[in-house]
């Protein structure tokens, strides 16, 4: 597991996604399987016909998406996260599933990471909303995506903005510096399309848009 110097985002994310929070998420994963956004992205990547490629999982969390794509034929993976607790849980789960040898774990703020390389698939599952500015994150992902970019992000509608506003208010009251943001969906989509990727699939829940883009 490699680490970069600690960025402000890495510090805030590391304190928010702490050992207690991560342990609860790992229990849910082991009991219930993939969360809905992860499942929709994995299905979209599979239907696009690119699941056998290498994977760069940005904000990998406990590693559910990485492990699911390896199970569907991905050659290898790099899992990047700003939370030490998440990476420890991801390594534990990968070891339990016999997949640890196929994954390189990197502790870093992805936007500032310099040693993650490129991959056939770059995935950002519920990561875009964690960054105050989406452009540096998306541009960094596009620069590393050889064939496919898959991402889930909050839908740009009033009730999602209201829900996230309430969450941020509770965090502010509790002295937690972590915030989530509803970025303009059209600007995200235009940035990706402008880099030469076409939309392969979009599956929406009430809160999330789950998009898979492929470079022709």
Please provide a written account of the structure:
There is one protein chain. The chain has helices spanning 8-16, 19-32, 36-47, 64-71, 84-96, 134-144, 158-173, 185-194, and strands spanning 2-3, 55-58, 77-81, 103-107, 119-125, 145-154, 198-204, 208-214. By secondary structure, it is an alpha/beta fold. It has a single domain, classed as Vaccinia Virus protein VP39 (Rossmann fold), CATH 3.40.50.150. The protein has an eight-stranded mixed sheet, with helices on both faces. Helix 4 (64-71) links the parallel strand 2 (55-58) and strand 3 (77-81). Helix 2 runs parallel beside helix 5 and helix 3 packs parallel to helix 4 (64-71). The longest helix has 16 residues, at 158-173.
User: Would you state the CATH class?
Assistant: Alpha Beta
Q: Tell me, rounded to a whole number, the average pLDDT.
A: 92
* Largest sheet entry: 8 strands, mixed
**Share of helix among residues?**
40-55%
Q: Return the structural class.
A: alpha/beta
How many β-strand runs? 8
CATH architecture annotation: 3-Layer(aba) Sandwich
Instruction: Find the CATH superfamily.
Output: Vaccinia Virus protein VP39
Give the overall shape.
globular
Helix count, per DSSP? 8
* Total of domains: 1
């Amino acid at each position: 597991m490699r680490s970069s110097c600690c960025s402000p985002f890495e510090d805030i994310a590391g304190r928010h996604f702490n050992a207690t929070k991560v342990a609860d998420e790992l229990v849910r994963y082991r009991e219930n399987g993939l969360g809905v956004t992860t499942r929709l992205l994995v299905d979209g990547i599979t239907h696009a016909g690119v699941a056998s490629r290498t994977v760069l999982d940005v904000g990998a969390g406990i590693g559910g998406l990485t492990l699911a794509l390896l199970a569907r034929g991905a050659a290898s993976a790099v899992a990047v996260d700003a939370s030490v607790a998440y990476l420890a849980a991801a390594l534990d789960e990968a070891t339990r599933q016999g997949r640890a040898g196929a994954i390189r774990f990197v502790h870093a703020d992805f936007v500032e990471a310099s040693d993650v390389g490129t991959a056939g698939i770059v995935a950002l599952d519920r990561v875009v909303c964690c960054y105050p500015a989406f452009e540096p994150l998306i541009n960094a992902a596009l620069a590393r995506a050889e064939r496919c970019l898959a991402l889930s992000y909050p839908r740009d509608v009033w009730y999602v903005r209201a829900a996230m506003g309430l969450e941020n208010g509770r965090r502010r009251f509790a002295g937690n510096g972590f915030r989530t943001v509803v970025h303009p969906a059209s600007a995200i989509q235009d940035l990706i399309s402008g880099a030469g990727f076409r939309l392969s699939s979009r599956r929406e829940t009430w809160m999330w848009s789950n998009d898979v883009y492929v470079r022709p």
